[in-house]
Amino acid sequence: MAFSKIDLRNFRCFDSLSIDLSSNSTLFYGKNGSGKTSILESIYVASSGRSFRTSNLESLIKKDEEAFNIRAYDDKTGSILEVKKARNKPINIKINNSKVTISELVRAFPSFSIDSKTFFYNDNAPDYRRKQLDRGLFIASPDYAKDWFGYFRSLKQRNSALKFGDMAQAKAYDQLLVDHGERLNTLRENLITEVKKIYDDLVIKLAQENTRAHIFSDLEIYLKSGFDNKAGLLECLNNSNVVDLKRKITTLGPHKADVLFESKGLLIKDIFSRGEQKLLSILWSLSQNIYLGRSFNLSPILLLDDLSSELDGEMLECFLPTLKYIENRFVFSNIVDLFGSKIINEKQSYKKFHVEQLN
Predict the structure, then answer these.
(1) What is the DSSP string of 45-83?
(2) Lowest CB count within 10 Å: 31, 51, 252, 306, which one?
């Protein structure tokens, strides 16, 4: 499911606000501090129960008010979502008047945020890239969630035994790690392979309209598993026993995985400019969003805050044709209006809102 309309009350700077979203691309534009990011944040809160800006949900309640309320509607199914956060109380989430958990929420109304960390995806630590990868799989595949939790429960127990120097007890968890971990690894590899196909196709289309997009072609994008795939996880665990016992932690496995982006054997973070890294991150996120929609019958919303930040004019021109190929709802913000003749496509639905006129 995906929102077609969202109503806010006492959220951040807004007393009340009602917005009908496009089925494709919706732009919120206006000067800094006008509330653009807050609107995107409200959509993310409504679809995940969390903010991409803060861990303190109470800070989202408008000053001098007791609670914020968000109502969202899905025009295809008729579903109604209600999210309420009152001061000193946990968040309350209902779909069609039935209370749901955050896990149920993120699967019912999936969304992904391209924020300041995602802009420089390749500059972040491996842990960040793993989390971005796992979030998509967690939403799309219940089996992945079972294996993810099973793996990390076993890993915690194994590490606890290593901490006390008990290798025999640690090895008791090896088979569980192998069973869950190798399935995790396969699902991750499959996702990256399939998303790469969509990414490559998207870049070919962009390059036909703007030759600058050729810089994003012929990249190597692959999963570094965190262990030797050819040997297998069980053999790798056996071979690392001495090191694990010395360091008191499991040193190999899917918890050490990474997603690598390379061009001619060089890491992207070492050769791309900041603007090029940002656009690459956007294109990869869009490709993953399209894959999840096509392969798992989802309608994931993709949120992008402050598009023009770090993008020079050349990179922005390179990006704009991408809007023709959006397959799910794409909601983004920018200081200025970007909708114009260069991105008009009669098959697409575009909407734009001048945020300063919404208050």
Answers:
(1) HHHHSS-SS-S-GGGGBPTT-SEEEEEEE-TTT--EEEE
(2) 31
pLDDT digits (tens, 9 = 90+) for 183-200: 999 999 999 999 999 999
pLDDT of 259-299, one tens digit each? Answer: 999 998 999 989 998 889 989 999 999 999 999 999 988 88
Strands (E), the chain: 5-11, 14-20, 25-29, 67-73, 80-86, 92-95, 98-99, 111-114, 220-224, 258-263, 266-267, 301-304, 330-334, 350-354
Lowest mean pLDDT among 6-10, 152-156, 307-311: 307-311
In total, how many domains does the chain have? 2
For residue 207 the two structure tokens come to: 């390059």
For residues 130 and 260, membership in a common domain is answered with: yes
CA 43/CA 6 separation, integer angstroms: 8
pLDDT of residue 344: 54
* Beta-carbon-side half-sphere exposure of residue 212 (alpha carbons within 13 Å): 15
**Does the predicted model carry a pTM greater than 0.90?**
yes
Quick check: is 275 in a domain?
Answer: no
Distance of alpha carbon 51 from alpha carbon 286, whole angstroms: 20
Residues 88 and 211 in one domain: no
* Domain of 256, in residue numbers: 122-269
Cα separation of the two ends of the chain = 28
In a domain, residue 288? The reply is: no
Tokens 């939790």 sit at which residue? 149
Question: In whole numbers, what is the pLDDT of the chain averaged over residues?
Answer: 92
Beginning with the edge strand found earlier in the chain, give each strand of the sheet holding 301-304 in spatial order: 111-114, 301-304, 330-334, 25-29, 350-354
> Is pLDDT at 96 greater than 80 in this prediction?
yes
